Amino acid sequence: MGQDQTKQQIEKGLHLYQSNQTEKALRVWMRVLEKSADPAGRFRVLGCLITAHAEMGRYKDMLKFAVVQTDTARELEDPDFLTESYLNLARSNEKLCEFQKTISYCKTCLNMQGTTVSVQLNGQVSLSMGNAFLGLSIFQKALECFEKALRYAHNNDDKMLECRVCCSLGNFYTQIKDYEKALFFPCKAAELVNDYGKGWSLKYRAMSQYHMAVAYRKLGRLADAMDCCEESMKIALQHGDRPLQALCLLCFADIHRSRRDVQLGLLKLHCLCERIYRTKEQHRELRDHVVKFHECVEEMELYCGMCGESIGEKNNQLQALPCSHFFHLK
């Protein structure tokens, strides 16, 4: 496979991926990886595979492709490619909670100064290092890294990086229990998405909404928390973002626990898990959650007195009568 054909196939995979045809995109990229004789093309397709596996939560595969990408960069003897590959190694280890390795790879990136790409990537490197320090609960160094990343974003007018840093700062302030700032920064991220994010991946909107949901819950604004979490989960389900789906499920559970409606929380949990496993065609897990959902419905007696169908399984409008009974509006 020559240079032009490699480029065409990579673009074909990107089009499929952006259309939510993830598995087809992965098959196209894997064929490029197997057949392409163009090292630069292989490097680029490995970057696509790393990003896709990161968003699907397949972090071990993400790391595997990052290692291969680093080997490819060494073959090319290009410092720009090498810096980018070390950043992907750092991110992969960050996702796997190997925070000391993340910091080590980030320092390697920062030491590779002098190239155009390395300067452009310094903000992303600082962000990854900040996330690692936060994972280790080294709060002062985490904040220093986030502030450095934010300066890079402002100096280079990089709105996408600024959005990501704001989400990480939301997480930071949640952990140190400064909930007003924990809300301010993801709200700022959401503003950036609205103002500049027309061509961005929807994951930026989803992440800002998730971090807003967490902050709203901590502040006791549970209705706002629920709205943001539902918006984030909707996008995560559309794009097959399993890590974000898991975070949203935990947030839903926390919201319902704060409301002390534990049974309703379990009902929503099983309903969402059913949708996730149905999409993934994991039939045994799907069956388990369908059974548990109906057990919750029976326990809570959530049945329409007119048609006999369960309430809550589908998004149907309800009518509440003065006697406190609920019926499907239909």
Description of the molecule:
- The protein is mainly α and 330 residues long.
- It is built from 15 helices and 2 strands.
- The chain has helices at residues 3-18, 22-35, 39-56, 59-76, 79-95, 99-111, 116-135, 139-155, 159-175, 179-196, 203-218, 222-239, 242-259, 262-280, 283-300, and strands at residues 318-320, 326-328.
- It has a two-stranded antiparallel sheet.
- Helix 1 packs parallel to helix 3 and helix 8 runs antiparallel to helix 9 (159-175).
- It starts with a helix and ends with a strand.
- Keywords: Metal-binding, Repeat, TPR repeat.
- It comes from Zosterops lateralis melanops.
Low-confidence stretches: none
Helix count, DSSP H or I runs of 4 or more residues:
15
Helix content: over 70%
- The whole-angstrom Rg is 23 Å
Order of helices and strands: HHHHHHHHHHHHHHHEE
With strands numbered from the N-terminus, the spatial order across the biggest sheet is: 1-2
| Separation, N- and C-terminal Cα atoms | 59 Å
So what's the oligomer here?
single chain
Percent of residues in beta strands:
under 5%
On the 0 to 100 scale, the average pLDDT is 85
What is the overall silhouette?
globular
Major sheet: 2 strands, antiparallel
* Class from helix and strand fractions: mainly alpha
Count of strand segments: 2
